[in-house]
Structures are given as C-alpha cells and as structure tokens.
Specification:
Number of helices: 23
Strand content: 5-15%
Strand order of the largest sheet: 3-4-6-8
Largest sheet: 4 strands, parallel
Number of strands: 8
Shape: globular
Distance between the termini: 66 Å
CATH architecture of one domain: Alpha Horseshoe
CATH class of one domain: Mainly Alpha
Structural class: mainly alpha
Helix content: 40-55%
Length: 453
C-alpha cells in the first residue's frame, strides 16, 4: 500500500510544521493559517495529525464569519494574538488568486506575489489604478498602458503583452520591464521591420510623455544592461540576495526595492529605516526619480515637511509622474492655481506651459490626451475658482473624473447635480453618483447617504 504523504503547514517566517500542534502554536502566523483554512489544508493537516475534534470544528466554521480569525485561534488553542483588524475575506481572495496562479507556475516567488496577478484586462487595469509596480500577467493577452511607467510585468502561461503603438517604444526609459512576456504579433513585426532594433526611437507627439527616472545616460545604460541580464535569475534567487547584487552593480531601481525591503521589513529583512533612507538617497543621488519620491514619502511620514517637499520637487523635475501629480496638488493647496496647471501640463508633456498655463484645461480637453482621473478632478477644482475654462470646464472635468472611476470626481459631480451648479438640478442623478462614490469608498458620500436615507 502506498504511503500517504503528509504535507506541512506553513507558518511564521516560512517555518513548516510537520509534527504536532505545539509547533503551530509556537510559530503561529494568523494570515497564513487563515489562508490555509480557506484552501482546505488546515483541516487536512489536523486530520493527518490525529486531531479529529479540531478538524471537525474547523470544517464547521463559516468562511464569511466576521470573527473567523478569533474562532480559529480559539480552536487551535492560540492566545494573545490580535484578531480585531484582520480582514479574512481579503486573505481569502488572495489565497484564491494564489491557487489560480499555481495552475500556471510553481515558482514560489511568483506565488508569493499572487495578489498582484491579472487574469483579465480588468484585473490589470485595477492593479495599475492601485499603484502596483510588479504585476503577473496570466495566460491571456493584455493591453499594456504605456503611461503607467516604472512597472515590471512577469508572464506565466500563454501571456502576451499587446503594445498599441506604430513605432518601437523605449521601455527602459519609461521604467517598464517584461520578464517572460512575448509581445503581440503586430508589435513584434514593427520591431523586426526596423534596422536598428536594439535602439528603437520613440515617436514624439503630444499624446506621449516620457519619464526618465534614471536621467544620467551612463547610469541608465548600465542599469539596462545589468538589470535585463540577470532579471530572470531573480525569480529563483532570494529577493534580498538578488536586489543586493543588482544594487551593487548599478541597478538603481533594484536599490529602491532594497530600500523598501528595509523600510517595511519584507522578505525576511530586518526592518531599518536608517538603511532604507541610505538606499533611497544613494539611488536618488544618481538621478533616480523613484528614489527621490520614496524619500519624499519617508520624510513626510516623520513630519519633516521641508525636507519632504525638497525631494518631491526634485522627483517632479526628474519627471516622476506621482511626484508631478503631488506637486500640482501642493500648488493647489497653496492657492497657486497657475502653478498647479504648470505641473499638470508638464505631467502630460505639454512643453508650452512655461507661459499661458490657463490654457492647459482646454489643451487637455481638446487635444486628445489621456488624462489621469485624479488629475481630472484637480482640473475641475482649479476651474471652479474661475481659472482656465471656469465653471463650465469644472463640470466637464468632474464628469470625466466620475466616468473614469475617481470617487472624488463622483462625489463632486453629485454635488453639482444636487445644487444645480453648471447643470440642470437633478436629485435622482445626484443620488446615483453619491451611491457610486460611496461604493468606491468615499466616506463623505457615505455620510451624505446616511443623512438623506
């Protein structure tokens, strides 16, 4: 008779419990236990280790119970673990993605990134909106948003990157990297039709903007060579080992990742804000806009606002997109509406914004630009003060922001309909947009609905 294989239970810091329940209690990790409850491994492990009563109690649990975490701790005899703020439904969704991803890859590093996997175009769009920097494309064709810069795409299964461009794109200049992801046939033929395939030139037009996060040519060239040559190896090496190797060989994006590991204590790295700042500052000194932006966030977190603003503006001048957005917001908060429009114009590659910034809303509206939803809402707020196109353009940009899924755009559009501001008063339409805004997490919309229910 074949021997039954007993798999271990994965716990804190990768510890594998193979022997008894005391191992589980000693190395307990609540999120991992919840994940293995949802995939069925916890019950099987308990049955395999002659704990039928515990297994039966686990099997009887409601997976949607709000106190699931507390019930699991009670059944397993684990004490002193905070369970109040644990979102078991989120852990369940993450585990479901992990199980689905495992159909296409067994790579443990990719499986640990399962929450950043996309199976449909809508999944990719959502991850981009959430700011994910590393994304797994799974067994499908995906249209790659060219304005979403500083991202790495990993392919599994029959993933294909669809590039909507008639000319070759300088992906490295945009901070975009592809690992095991072939391009679609049309774009591949465009590359093959060029004599100088190794150094494709980007076609300059108003609808495209470039972001040079590694502006010094020498460093950029080295980062490209070193980063691509060993990127595949990163999937089979320890995260920190690979990033340290890359950082030491001039890959400043890897240095930023390494800084994030130290800042948040990820992948077994001992948390150290001092080391994180040193990593960010080193990469920033070599012209990496992303590193400058991380320094801005770090200093803002510890209330060193003067230092934070210095790095935000440096990152913005290096054309780091998030920094340019924040620079525009900061100018708006200071009532410098022309300054805000200046940065919005630069964000979208409008070079004529050194003077005549009041035309930026009109240029973006009529010039065929792809405008970010958060900037649409900001444009509307600026116009509400009589700058740019005034209140008529205000309504236009609130509506565009709402249609694009920005919850503040939805809320502000609802107010316009409620008050009859720049549009015919329509209370039913106002309620519709308040509900949409609330569904997207806007607390003010929730308060309004509660007040008027």
């Amino acid at each position: 008779m074949a021997r039954k294989v007993k798999f271990p239970l994965e716990l804190k810091d990768g510890y594998l419990a193979r022997s008894n329940i005391e191992e589980v209690r000693t190395h307990f990790d609540l999120e991992k236990v919840i994940a293995q409850f949802h995939n069925g491994r916890l019950k099987i492990w308990l049955d395999d280790h002659y704990l039928p009563e515990m297994a039966a109690q686990v099997a009887a649990l409601d997976s949607d119970a709000p106190d699931l975490a507390a019930q699991l701790c009670a059944i397993l005899g684990v004490e002193g673990v905070a369970t109040e703020n644990v979102d078991s439904s989120l852990i369940q969704k993450r585990e479901e993605k992990r199980q689905r991803l495992s159909q296409y890859t067994t790579n443990p590093i990719l499986c640990d990134m399962a929450e950043f996997s996309a199976f449909e175009q809508s999944d990719l769009d959502a991850l981009i909106d959430e700011g994910a920097r590393k994304i797994i494309l799974c067994n499908n064709s995906f249209r790659i948003p060219l304005l979403a810069e500083n991202r790495t795409y990993y392919g599994v299964g029959k993933a294909v990157a669809v590039i909507e461009s008639d000319t070759p794109i300088e992906f490295m200049a945009r901070g975009i990297q592809f690992v095991d992801v072939p391009f679609d046939e049309k774009y591949t033929n465009i590359l093959l039709s060029k004599k100088d395939v190794e150094k494709p030139k980007i076609k300059k037009n108003k609808t495209q903007s470039s972001k040079d996060t590694n502006a010094r040519g020498k460093q950029k060239k080295k980062s490209k060579k070193e980063g691509i040559s060993t990127l595949d190896n990163s999937l089979v090496l320890d995260h920190r080992t690979w990033y340290e190797h890359e950082a030491n060989h001039g890959n400043y994006a890897a240095m930023v990742y390494l800084g994030m590991m130290y800042e948040f204590g990820m992948n077994g790295v001992v948390q150290s804000e001092e080391t994180a700042l040193r990593c960010y500052r080193t990469a920033a000194e070599y012209g990496n806009g992303w590193a400058m932006y991380e320094l801005y966030l770090c200093y803002a977190e510890i209330d060193q606002y003067e230092e934070a603003q210095k790095w935000c503006m440096k990152a913005a001048h290096y054309k780091y997109e998030d920094a340019m957005c924040d620079a525009a917001r900061q100018r708006f908060r200071e009532d410098d509406y022309i300054g805000a429009l200046h940065w919005i114009g630069r964000l979208h590659g409008i070079t004529e914004v050194l003077e005549g910034e009041e035309d930026v809303p009109k240029i973006l509206r009529d010039g065929g630009y792809i405008v970010k939803p958060c900037v649409m809402n900001l444009l509307a707020l600026i116009c509400s003060y009589g700058v740019g196109g005034g209140r008529a353009d205000m309504f236009f940009w609130f509506r565009e922001a709402a249609r694009a899924g920005d919850h503040w755009g939805m809320y502000n559009l609802a107010q316009c309909y409620e008050e009859g501001d720049s549009v015919v008063r329509d209370f039913d339409t106002a309620i519709y947009w308040y509900k949409k805004s609330a569904q997207h997490g806007n607390e003010e919309a929730k308060k309004w609905l509660k007040k008027h229910s």
